[in-house]
Amino acid sequence: MTAPRRPNRHYEYVDDGPAIYTDSFATIRREARLGHLPGNAERLAVRMIHGTGQVGLADDLVVHPDLVPAARAALEDGAPILCDARMVAAGVTASRLPGDNEVLCFLGDARVPDLAREWGTTRTAAAVSLWEPLLEGAVVAVGNAPTALFHLLEMLVDGAPRPAAIVGCPVGFIGAAESKQALTEFADRHGTDIPYVTVRGRRGGSAMTSSALNALAKEEE
């Protein structure tokens, strides 16, 4: 096989990986408004902004004051990370995980299609039901389907085990903003205070969610 050949340099750009990270985080801190967030959530916010390229994301972030310590302690104790989408799971950097944590997504489970048909819901929501045996003390991450976040909250109202933390950043035009609003109101409405991070409105997605998980897994940037 022929050895790969580097092309001639035709553009001026930074190609030093560590320097790119350092300069990116410095740029975010210069440009983003982070003062309304808990002090321990600054690095979380910076990573989420970095994962989306949207400095204005900071204005819509809502972070429970206990989210960072609760999630990090759970991960250090070996808690699993339960993801609604494969892309969220794939975005978690294994080398940052402190407790040899399992990163799980049940969307491909053979039971899911039948459950979704029986219940008249999305497959992503049906897959969330399979989290229940692992839910106690877990870190859960919803970065795709609003129905998955609604389904999780309904499970918790009905007495499902309590996770250590929720990263709730589903994306979309139907139900995304509403599901995240329900997450922010959950403690007041139902008396169960679970640390969370979310972003108001329609924005969200796998990259944002996995960036949050990577920040929670390890303090160092």
TrEMBL record:
Keyword Isomerase tagged: yes
Q: What class of enzyme is it?
A: isomerase
Q: What is its EC number?
A: 5.4.99.60, 5.4.99.61
Q: Which GO terms describe its molecular function?
A: cobalt-precorrin-8 methylmutase activity; precorrin-8X methylmutase activity
Domain Cobalamin biosynthesis precorrin-8X methylmutase CobH/CbiC per the UniProt entry, residue ranges: 20-218
Provide the alphabetized UniProt keywords: Cobalamin biosynthesis, Isomerase
- Name the record gives this protein: Precorrin-8X/cobalt-precorrin-8 methylmutase
